[in-house]
Amino acid sequence: MQTIQWYPGHMTKAIRMMKENISLVDAAVYILDARVPAACLNPDFVTLLNGKPVLMLLNKSDLAEKAKTDAWVEYFKRQGIVARAICATSRSVAGAVTSGLKSVLAEKIARNEAKGVKKPMRAMVIGIPNCGKSTVINSVAGGKRALTGDKPGVTKGKQWIRLDTGIELLDTPGTLWRAFEDQQIARHLAYIGSINDEILDLGGLCICLLEELYARYPGAVAARYKIEEGDPVQGFTDICKRRGFVVRGGELDYERGARAVLDDFRKGRIALATLEDPS
Could you report the per-residue pLDDT of 254-265, keeping only the tens digit for each? Predict the structure, then answer.
């Protein structure tokens, strides 16, 4: 499997922009992918936030294992961090964001009310690429106000969105960190589409994913593709054969097979899977 590193130039500009604007907000809405929450914790954001109150949103919880998502919410709670499990397209998102921000900013809101001051709550929305930031904002706003897409890098600059509740959200580009010292983190981000597929060895990545799914959710791959589970390399070959992914000359089209498996995983067709535990 290749060593994964990906840090396009616009991310450097994004971090600079976020640093320049962090003083304008009262809190951060930090969006994680519920399937790989730990991998979504960008170490660069620790310095960026510099003690700002944070609301953690575990997005795509409909694609994750519920018990493990609950365990992650409890984990953050033990760290003194307000966290909510959400699905970005659900009607309940607006309430989760509003109530969550009111909770993390309760002291500031109380101080303002005591002084008779009415100020909008301002929050910067941050996260890795393709975690669903813009979709969350659009759901909260009740309309398509932020650009969305299923590939990393759709949001390239900052966007202020004013909500009917008086909350103001600053959408920012999805941002990774400069180097992945832990390649398992890199693979987990690649599985969920946070790293550009075009720079990846998709076949090798698919084999790594199958190996993890065999270990964590035995039987799920077999049920989806009607193959025997065992060696992930053989399993990948069997999937390509079963699906008829063949190129001219009768050779198997491994790239097409890898894209199909990754797409199935990303859309929850193989299993409602969580690949990381709070421990």
Answer: 999 999 999 999
Q: How many CA atoms lie within 13 A of 149 on its CB side?
A: 12
Calpha distance 69→72 (Å, rounded)? 5
277 and 35 in contact (C-beta within 8 Å)? no
Strand intervals (E) in the chain:
27-33, 54-59, 82-85, 122-127, 159-162, 168-171
Nearest to 124 by CA among 44, 43, 24: 24
| Single-letter code of the amino acid located at 96 | A
Instruction: List the beta bridge partners of residue 170.
Output: 124, 160
Report whether 167 contacts 27 (CB < 8 A).
Answer: no
Q: How far apart are CA 114 and CA 148, in angstroms?
A: 39
Task: Determine if the pTM surpasses 0.85.
Answer: yes
The answer to whether the CB of 212 falls within 8 A of the CB of 220 is no
Cα–Cα distances (Å) from 201 to 181, 183, 204, 208, 249, in that order, read 18, 14, 6, 11, 22
Answer yes or no: is pLDDT of 156 > 90.
Answer: no
Contact partners, residue 220, CB within 8 Å, separation at least 6: 213, 270, 271, 273
- Provide the token pair at 140: 């909260």
Helix axes 232-243, 254-266, angle to 10 degrees: 100
CB 270 within 8 A of CB 65: no
